[in-house]
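Entry for zinc ion complex. Fields follow.
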Amino acid sequence: MASKTLGFTQYLVVIVVVPVVVVVVVVVVVVVVVVVVVVVTSSCSSPNSSVVFVVVVRDDDDDDDDDEEEEEEEEEEEERRELQRKDWVTLNRARAKVGKTASTLHKWKLRPNSECPCGNQNQTMDHILSECTEEPHCTDQDLRGCTDAAQAWITHWRDKI
Ligand SMILES: [Zn+2]
């Protein structure tokens, strides 16, 4: 009886316990090897690579949308500032009558003639402020007071003079 029980126990050990132990040992060895390889490669090739990875993974989360929104807001703010600056430059050019009109560009030999697209032979600042048939007009007084007429005129001309 005893030898039969012992035989059954040995059988059990050989069939069940040994393979389980072997599998556990193999898994542990594989995990240890993988951990060692990861640690060695990350410390040898680039000490910051694991940090970079963490940052990249974080960027895939909600932060991504926030960053995009922030970038868009910054771009809009930059655009607004640029427009304000252009408006200001245009206003001052009109007040000083020194804009890059066809007449001025012709004088600087940057244009073959000083014609205005409206047909006038001499596109001066005074012409585009008060005479030109195609554009909104405004007076020197409008420019000094920066009235709605001056703003409409600036909006039209800010990219052209
Ligand atoms: Zn004209």
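NOTE: The two ends are 112 Å apart (CA to CA).
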